[in-house]
Design brief:
InterPro entries: CBM5/12, CBM_sf_5/12, GH, Glyco_hydro_5, Glyco_hydro_5_CS, TAT_signal. Helix 5 runs parallel beside helix 6. The chain has an eight-stranded parallel sheet with strand order 18-17-16-15-14-13-12-19. The protein is an alpha/beta fold and 420 residues long. The longest helix has 17 residues. It is built from twelve helices and 19 strands. The radius of gyration is 22 Å and the shape is globular.
Length: 420
């Protein structure tokens, strides 16, 4: 813990009030002593923007339990989260006996308490992903569903759950290009990505900016849109050290040479604005390293993209993609840098029965070779591949009791301690 000089009291406020929403709330003196953080059972719903709270209501936020002091509405964008507004909330304690969060997690002699604080700017090293100290690491996390459909599932409350309960390292922000996505309103979807980046940055998590092209499968169809999008995102966020760019979700119906040509045009666009970020490159046949088209990883190994600090993506769905896919991933990871940016325990459509045994074989391989992975998907879609039961996102309650079977399974694996 870093010692700090106590503030000098220059004035005492004896009777100040602040209007927040419909409530008049007394201002606390600037020198009020910090509230003690005893252990509490955090079974209450997670706090969320846009919701109304009554005096005495209990919530959880950032690994702590709070009680509302007054009735109020947490207006979006107001910044009235419990940790920031002691006039609205009283701290009950940390969840289940967890230690009180350190206000200076990266002080001398202390370990960082977020993935980004622990690892800093990532880079590709050989066939792996390394942190700023050159140590090879594995990131584990979740992908959003399409933000044109499920933005209500990406809230302060849901991201607090990912960061502080699931202990996720990374979130993939899936911006569909077609299907009611980016092409319908580029400014809106660009702004939405930036909003999510800011939320993830505040929580010390890595953000994968996913250009979720799917149909048409030729990435050149959206090349100009991609250039516009990535220029805007990279220019706005180039001062951050937690951004990873995924430039083509699942190319399909075209050759590796065609996909490679696209990558060699889009990577320089990002490099012009953000020269240090890792860029993830989609592979042939829905990012299967070509396996779904009867090929294999050799086409990428023998004809890599002419760019540095890049990785190649691999997607799998355990109930559909069996031994041939697993073997190709294993061989590829020994020759080129690979990142699993999407997978599920179901069939390739993200639905049907879960094959946890096959999925575990993939994750065991990924752990042994430190291949980073992201699971599809963090929403309450009706399919079995969505982690939350239907209605969860609207309720704002992201407790473990709201998880589907696949959600419980993946949460347990993300919560496994990181080996940073």
């Amino acid at each position: 813990m870093v010692s700090r000089r106590a503030p000098i009291v220059v004035a005492v406020l004896t009777a100040a009030t602040l209007a927040l929403g419909t409530a008049l709330v007394p201002l606390l003196p600037a020198t009020a002593a910090p509230q003690a953080a005893a252990a509490v059972d955090c079974s209450a719903p997670a706090w969320a923007e846009g919701r109304s709270y009554t005096a005495g209501q209990h919530v959880t936020h950032a690994g702590r339990g709070y009680t509302a002091l007054v009735s109020h509405t947490a207006h979006p964008g107001a910044g009235w989260d419990p940790a920031s507004t002691p006039t609205l909330w009283t701290l009950d304690g940390t969840c289940d006996g967890a230690p009180d969060p350190d206000p200076d997690p990266t002080g001398p002699g202390e370990e960082a308490d977020t993935p980004v604080a622990a690892n800093g700017q990532l880079r590709v090293c050989g066939t792996g992903l390394c942190n700023e100290r050159g140590t090879r690491i594995q990131l584990r996390g979740m992908s959003t569903h399409g933000t044109q459909w499920y933005s209500q599932c990406v809230t302060d409350g849901s991201l607090d759950t990912l960061a502080h309960d699931w202990n996720a390292d990374v979130v993939r922000i899936s911006t569909y290009v077609q299907e009611g996505g980016y092409e319908t309103d580029p400014a809106r979807f660009t702004a939405l990505v930036n909003t999510y980046i800011d939320k993830l940055t505040a929580r010390g998590m890595y953000a994968i900016v996913d250009w979720h092209m799917l149909d048409p499968g030729d990435p050149h169809f959206n090349l100009q849109r991609a250039k516009t999008f990535f220029t805007a995102i990279a220019e706005r966020n180039n001062g951050k050290n937690n951004i990873i760019y995924e430039v083509a979700n699942e190319p399909n119906g075209v050759s590796w040479q065609t996909i490679k040509s696209y990558h060699e045009q889009i990577v320089p666009v990002i490099r012009a604005k953000d020269p240090d970020a890792v860029v993830l490159l989609g592979t042939r046949a829905w990012s299967s390293l070509g396996v779904s088209d009867g090929a294999n990883e050799s086409e990428v190994v023998n004809n890599p993209v002419n760019a540095s600090n890049v990785m190649y993506t691999f997607h799998f769905y355990a109930a559909s993609h069996r031994e041939e896919y697993l073997s190709a991933l294993s061989r590829a990871a020994d020759r080129i840098p690979v990142f699993i940016t999407e997978f599920g325990t179901q069939d390739y459509a993200g639905e049907g029965a879960n094959d946890f045994a096959m999925a575990q074989r993939y994750l065991d391989l990924a752990a042994s070779k430190k291949i980073s992975w992201v699971n599809w998907n963090y929403s309450d879609d009706h399919r079995s591949g969505a982690v939350w039961t239907e209605g969860t996102c609207a309720s704002g309650d992201f407790g473990a009791h709201r998880l589907k079977q696949a959600g419980t399974w993946i949460r347990d694996r993300i919560r496994t301690p990181d080996a940073f």
